[in-house]
Known about the structure:
The protein contains eight helices and 17 strands. The protein is an alpha/beta fold. It folds into two domains: 4-184, Rossmann fold, CATH 3.40.50; 207-328, 3-Layer(aba) Sandwich (Rossmann fold), CATH 3.40.50.1220.
Amino acid sequence: MADVLAFAExxxxxxxxxxREAVWVAARLAEGLGGTAHALVLGAGDLADAAAExxxxxxxxxxxxxxxxxxxxxxxxxxxxxxxxxxxxNFGTVVFPATTTGKDLAPRVAALLDVPLATDVTGVEVExxxxxxxxxxxxxxxxxxLDIDASPTLLSIxxxxxxxxxxxxxxxxxxxxxxxxxxxxxxxxxxxxxSGEGALDVAEATIIVSGGRGMKDPENWNxxxxxxxxxxxxxxxxxxxxxxxxxxxxxxxxxxxTGKTVAPKLYFALGISGAIQHLAGMRTSQTIVAVNxxxxxxxxxxxxxxxxxxxxxxxxxxxxxxxxxxxxS
Length: 329
């Protein structure tokens, strides 16, 4: 049971960035275990072209389950299919993304297979034929290093932590139509609301510009939007729980323990004090830049770069300098 399966999440027929990361991690694990990496994609419509690219990230084959009922994620449909593929493929390890979907799906599959699940993994390697993982504990204040003694081994990886490297490999595509009994479903998707037209999901972004109560008023978010636009592509707007609870920003932008856990390359914390529940969702960001008027704000304890000052003076100046730098280059 040395082969590894990665659940490759798609949305509206396009693979998410974390799908490539999951496959890349699966390939590294398979190499250490002496097996091969495979991927599983579920959805509606033709997914073969999207699935084919996973070969460049280490998948030797991609299983594509297509059914009209799988167009929207539904745990009653997805979990049994994934569990059955794990059993029939005799996979020893399964890698999920720790996205909103992955956090709902992975524990359900673990329950069906009656095995434990290592969640929100930020480091993983093979030592002596066993899988060793690293994951944050105590709201990110510490990291635990664990050996997983279970078969199959299930784990979910935090998005944007593992940098998937693209190669020249190819994957064989095997399509199948899973059996789906909609009459047994206990829940159904009745509506899906986007956080904003064309808005990038904070869980997918490589750069996040987040605001907190220091923004003073929802009308002031144009300051953050201007910084986002100055930086360019791949930037999402984020928010603290306080401003989401106040109705200033949509819940889809909330970063923190009760929102989304993110790990972008660059995180701007603007007017955010740094409550522990917020830090739990972003402290594994590669680089953190904080701007706050309070020199004792907890956010400065985790920031790589900190500016004590009025964000309404600092942030526009920062956007101006970024535009000037890009113009020179």
